[in-house]
Amino acid sequence: KKDDLFLINLENKTLSFNNNSISTIYPNLPENILIFIPVAVIQSISLPPHHFNIIIIDKQSSTYTYYEPYGYYDVAGDKKRIYQKAFNLIIKTIDDTFKGFSYVDPHKYDEFEIGVQRRAEREYNIPNSGYCVAWCIYICYLRLFNYHLTSTTPMSVILNRIFMLYKDTQLLDMIMRFVEYIKHQFKGFEPDNHNLRDFFATYDTHTDLS
Asked: Residue 151 and residue 141: Cα distance in Å, rounded?
């Protein structure tokens, strides 16, 4: 649900979330389940979120990971430190809630160290695509459709290695076709237009990241 987002606000340097979901609802879900928690990054409360990450908690294997399609802490400029602090606090919050769960580094053993979205924009000379939501959903699909498989290699690393074989036009074409697939799946749904200010009324935890 939209009120279960982690919200990183780079404008006022805060991290907001619904602690009831994190501490009460999620831990009591069935054991053989994947939990996907969106993380929205906003630069201004008057604008739509400008970036998107996903937390994936696997209760069956007692692991969790934080997927950033740009790669490690990849928010540029003077906001980078605030983003890093929010990232670390989110990891600590999940770690404190899910006792005994281990964190899977999403880019462990990945010699590229940057995510598929950043590589698409930098190395392949593709302009800022704005496809962070699509990349996060793609990772969710990979986890869901391969839930029966076990691997010590993080799914994001596998994704990186696969797409190193792609040319720039192939990579862009793939994610654009996936976006069209998502739109088709949600055809007929009413758009959820909302003001970000409405979110904060549902949150009981606001942490200063200054």
From this structure: 16
CB 160 within 8 A of CB 112: yes
SS3 per-residue string spanning the chain: CHHHCEEEECCCCEEEECHHHHHHHHHHCCCCCEEEEEEEEECCCCCCCCEEEEEEEECCCCEEEEECCCECCCCCHHHHHHHHHHHHHHHHHHHHHCCCCEECCCCCCCCCCECHHHHHHHCCCCCCCCCHHHHHHHHHHHHHHCCCCCCCCCHHHHHHHHHCCCCHHHHHHHHHHHHHHHHHHCCCCCCCCCCHHHHHHHCCEEEECC
* Contact assessment for residue 91 and residue 68, using Cβ atoms and an 8 Å cutoff: no
Q: List the end-to-end C-alpha distance of the chain, in Å, as a whole number.
A: 28
Mean pLDDT, residues 72-97? 80
Structure-token pair, residue 136:
């996060």
**Residue 198 token pair:** 């409405």
Strand-pair partners of 15: 8, 207
| Backbone region of residue 13 per phi and psi (left: phi > 0; alpha: psi in -120 to 50; beta: other values) | left
pLDDT tens per residue, range 29-41: 898 888 999 998 8
Q: Would the pTM count as exceeding 0.85?
A: no
